[in-house]
Amino acid sequence: MQFLRKINLNLSAASLLIVLSGLQAYWMVSARGFPMRTALFDVVGSYSLLYLCFLFIRYGLNHYFISSRYNYLILAVQSLIIALAWMYSCEWTLLYLLLNDPHYAEFWELSWAVRMVLGWVLLYDFCLFNLILHKNQKIQQEQSVHQHTEQLRKEAELFMLRQQLQPHFLFNSLNSINALIGREPQLARTMVQQLSEYLRHTLKKEDEALISFQEEIDDLHIYLNIEQIRFGHRLKVSEAIEEECLQHKIPPFLLQPLIENAIKYGLYGTLGEVTINITAYLNGGKFFFKIVNPYDPHAVAAKGTGFGLESVKRRLYLLFGRNDLLELQRHQIAGTAADDPQHYFTAVIQIPRQVATISTTENPVNNDLQNTQSHTD
Fold it and tell me: Measured at the alpha carbon of residue 349, what is the angle toward residues 346 and 351, in degrees to the nearest 5?
């Protein structure tokens, strides 16, 4: 059906009639001995009227009402009626107005059946192609409506995800500021400034579908500064970021929930220092962002439903149509004889090459990505 999207039915029909008229004129002159003037009158008159019938079928008839069960029968009857009308129009025009010639009248009588069959076949084929084109156009319109509806559904789901997320980061930051005001007013002031800068950065990216990883990591550094004020020396961050990653385009605010999840499950319920490892690298043109954090399986579990990671996975699916772009793993490394094994949690996000195809006008998607920045599990 792809060729039907490019075919011009009117032009194709006109080209076919020109070829047939040339062949018929040559046959009438060479085989039947008619003068060229008579042959030209015959082919031009008859095929011009036939082309008018084509135009009537193309623009004067509506095939949408035809039931698929009786398509071919109705088209056959319809083309037969139009072919009869065409034949009588040709007979009246050519015999009585243009070519009052007994020899031509005899030729007309002999060729009437052949002309009728040829006209019927041509009209039936044209009706059939016209119906197929109408149906193809209708299918394209339905597909367009379906795609638009699917896009609206995705945007509605992204908006729902944004509304369901809880702003734990903002609440925790405000609680920490409240706790610091009395005993560490300078730290509280610094935290307010960092929080203000972070929120200002997020608002600037409201309409951006893609940003460089350099911008994303700058925002993450502001966020980590706030968290380090909250947790002090207990929070350590180790980064291994390849230079070529910094200019790679990624959706904004997709990585912060992973960082917050690592802090939440790495530091909550423990008293010692915790190092979170952040890695970014390119492999085969694809961008990978990995976070590894230790966790204590015996510690009191942090409250949460896991919705933060699930929402990241769902947004990746809505953006790229894949469910394998967020990989979560738990593993352990054996310690010394006196120590328990070390447990680690790893989260890896993959941004495929087709990231550049994300439309920059999908504001609902952008808004969703922006608003996920301050949420977690």
Answer: 160
What pTM, to 2 d.p., does this model score? 0.57
Distances (CA, A) of 205 to 201, 213, 220, 317: 7, 13, 14, 21
Angle at which helices 307-320 and 102-164 cross, to 10°: 160
Pairing, β 274-283 against β 235-241: parallel
At position 338, the amino acid (one-letter code) is A
Joined together, the tokens standing for residue 371 give: 């608003």
If you search the block for the tokens 């949460």, which residue do you land on?
Answer: 304
DSSP state, residue 302: P
Give the integer Cα–Cα distance in Å for 138 and 141: 5
Task: Compute the distance between CA of residue 30 and CA of residue 35 in angstroms, rounded to an integer.
Answer: 9
Q: What is the pLDDT of residues 268-313, one digit of tens each?
A: 777 788 899 999 999 888 899 999 998 877 765 555 555 678 878 8
**For residues 374 and 221, is the Cβ–Cβ distance under 8 A?**
no
Q: Within the chain, what is the greatest distance between any pair of CA atoms?
A: 120
Rounded Cα gap, residues 49 and 43, in angstroms: 10
Band of pLDDT at residue 168, cut at 50, 70 and 90: low
What is the token pair recorded at 13? 């029909």
Per-residue tokens: 83: 């072919």
Determine if residue 304 is left, alpha or beta; phi over 0 gives left, psi from -120 to 50 gives alpha, anything else beta: left
Nearest-CA neighbor of 209 among 317, 290, 285, 319? 319
8 A C-beta contact, residue 368 and residue 157: no
Count how many Cα atoms sit within 13 Å of the Cα of residue 169 in the half-sphere of its side chain: 30
Pick from 19, 17, 41: nearest CA to 29: 41
Cα separations (Å) of 345 from 281, 300, 348? 19, 16, 10
The token pair at 145 is 């409506």
Query: In Å, how far are 157, 158, 335 from 163, measured between CA atoms?
Result: 10, 9, 43
